[in-house]
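We now fix the convention by which a protein and its fold are recorded. Here is one such record, which you should read through line by line:

>
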Amino acid sequence: QVQLVESGGGLVQAGGSLTLSCIVSGLTFDLRTMGWFRQVPGKEREGVSCIRWNGDSTLYEDSVKGRFTISRDNAKNTLYLQMNRLKSEDTAMYFCAADRLAYGLAPDAYTYWGQGTQVTVTS
């Protein structure tokens, strides 16, 4: 059974930091592209960042470049998203996702999804 479990969300003031984690089980983690996505009610899910299976390539959505950093620890089957200088517009439910072939920020390309962790940034 494939499971992706996010954690690390919470309430933070603007300018603060959070680190999200996603622990993966039930699939070959080190052969998968992993991504972070976010969604607010009434809007489509959008890609935030993704990382290739070996960590040698990453992508970021323009609004988070220079503030967010994606990383992975294949030995721990864990994906991370370090979020710095958070803004109110970063408020959303954040999801991690995995896919063997996908690489990019299009949600439809990813097969496996977690349940999400809420990030709320107060101004």
